[in-house]
# Entry
Amino acid sequence: VQLVESGGGLVQTGGSLRLSCAASGNTKNINAMGWYRQAPGKQRELVATIRSGGGSTNYADSVKGRFTLSRDNAKNTMYLQMNSLKPEDTAVYFCNADSVVSNIAILRYWGQGTQVTVSS
# Structure
């Protein structure tokens, strides 16, 4: 599975960005996808996840009500709409996908990351 992110950039406080993550390769066994972010000097943290079956989503408390995760299964693409951005949202955002290998094994794939910078 290959993941390619796009859509990062520089935006002012209160602005919006939409990140995209396009999956290719053996995508049929992907059961969940998500976004993580890592700010300088901090650990990578979960932003949001979406499951393939049913499309249920989960958000970090820090982004609830501001970020919306969606997925276009036909295009194997996931989107993160980010509104009301704050300087503390500044980070490199990574897309990930979990692919079921067997009943007890899941492989996690990562994209290369896209920079989001929110100026105050």
Observations:
- The mean pLDDT is 95.
- The longest strand covers residues 91-100.
- The chain is about 0% helix and 60% strand.
